[in-house]
Amino acid sequence: MARKVVIIDDEQDLCLLIKSFLLQRDLLVFTAHSLVDGLKMIRDIVPDILIMDNNLPDGSGWDNLNLVRGIIPNCKIILISAFNAKFPSLVKDVSILEKPVSLLKLQTYIA
């Protein structure tokens, strides 16, 4: 069975780019453009991989990691950030993907 991926990012073009890339790798891909919609989606779909923007119009990906972990505890999480931020190293199981997004780097994270 194909792995399921949810992308939560308000940049629709970026979602489309990543979705196209992942579909070519035989993954099932779903997108949401806000934190509220994304949280509902991960509850419904229970993805294997979550790709979430840090700066969403209705909240911060980083600030909501514990909530996300409570919903999908075994999911691989990739947090996208436009800033060269030094996120706390307390959450060792979260990958950070900086914008501009490198699809080659993303490939290593989903492998």
Textual characterization of the structure:
This protein has 111 residues and is an alpha/beta fold. Strand 1 (4-8), helix 1 (12-23) and strand 2 form a beta-alpha-beta unit. It has a five-stranded parallel β-sheet, with helices on both faces. It has a two-stranded antiparallel sheet with strand order 4-5. The model has no long low-confidence stretch (mean pLDDT 90). It has four helices and seven strands. It has helices at 12-23, 35-45, 65-71, 103-110, and strands at residues 4-8, 28-32, 49-53, 55-56, 59-60, 76-81, 94-98. Helices cover 34% and strands 27% of the residues. It has a domain at 1-51: 3-Layer(aba) Sandwich (Rossmann fold).
- The coarse silhouette is globular
Q: Please identify which CATH superfamily of the domain at 1-51 we are dealing with.
A: Response regulator
| H/I helix tally | 4
The H-and-E topology, N to C, reads as EHEHEEEHEEH
Q: Numbering strands along the chain, what is their spatial order in the largest sheet?
A: 2-1-3-6-7
Look up the CATH topology of the domain at 1-51. Rossmann fold
At the first level of CATH, the class of the domain at 1-51 is Alpha Beta
* Beta content: 25-35%
InterPro entries: Bact_response_regulator, CheY-like_superfamily, Sig_transdc_resp-reg_receiver
Modified residues (4-aspartylphosphate): 53
Keywords: Phosphoprotein
Domain Response regulatory: 4-111
In short:
With 111 residues, the protein is of the alpha/beta class. 34% of the residues lie in helices and 27% in strands.
Describe the protein's topology.
Elements lengths: L3 E5 L3 H12 L4 E5 L2 H11 L3 E5 L1 E2 L2 E2 L4 H7 L4 E6 L12 E5 L4 H8 L1
Parallel strand pairs: 1-2, 1-3, 3-6, 6-7
Antiparallel strand pairs: 4-5
